[in-house]
Design goal:
Shape: globular
Number of helices: 1
């Protein structure tokens, strides 16, 4: 009887939409929500997105990241300057106590420079995040479609 319940629960989980199966991680007092990327071919630059929420009483900073799938990994910001979208590397991303910081298309993001293999929709790509205080944490980027904006839970975060 117990095995049958387990099997039914497992089958039910498989039928959930992908957005409902979002994944999260923790580094010290920092919650890392739904790390994801868009599908991309090998040889180009990909990007990683996620949400950082500081549940603690002291600030922390995301100071770096690394991934075997890329030649180099950098933290970048992007924004409009004089009508042109520009990207710039940033030294770190501050996460103040109680604050939430979104790494999302058109803003802060993690650059995966020189992809050694393609980012394929449906795959999970290992990425190590490095925090100043919380240390290192291994996460997986969920690869979504090439034009994805990060699933339904992220749509309200983007302006028109």
């Amino acid at each position: 009887m117990l095995n049958r319940r387990f099997l039914l629960a497992a089958l039910g989980a498989l039928s959930l939409p992908a957005a409902a199966m979002a994944h999260s991680y923790k580094a010290g007092e920092i919650d890392i929500g739904h790390p994801w990327s868009r599908a991309a071919p090998a040889g180009v630059t990909g990007a990683g997105y996620l949400t950082l929420t500081n549940k603690g009483s002291t600030a922390d900073r995301l100071v770096g990241a690394r991934a075997e799938i890329a030649r180099a990994v950098e933290i970048h910001s992007s924004g409009m300057e004089g009508g042109v979208m520009r990207m710039r590397p940033v030294e770190a991303i501050e996460v103040a106590p109680g604050a939430e910081v979104q790494l999302a298309p058109g803003g802060l993001h993690i650059m995966l420079i020189g992809l050694k293999q393609p980012l394929v929709k449906g795959a999970r790509v290992p990425l190590t995040l490095v925090f100043e205080k919380a240390g290192e944490v291994a996460v997986e980027l969920a690869v979504e479609a090439a034009g994805a904006r990060g699933g339904d839970e992220h749509q309200h975060q983007h302006g028109g």
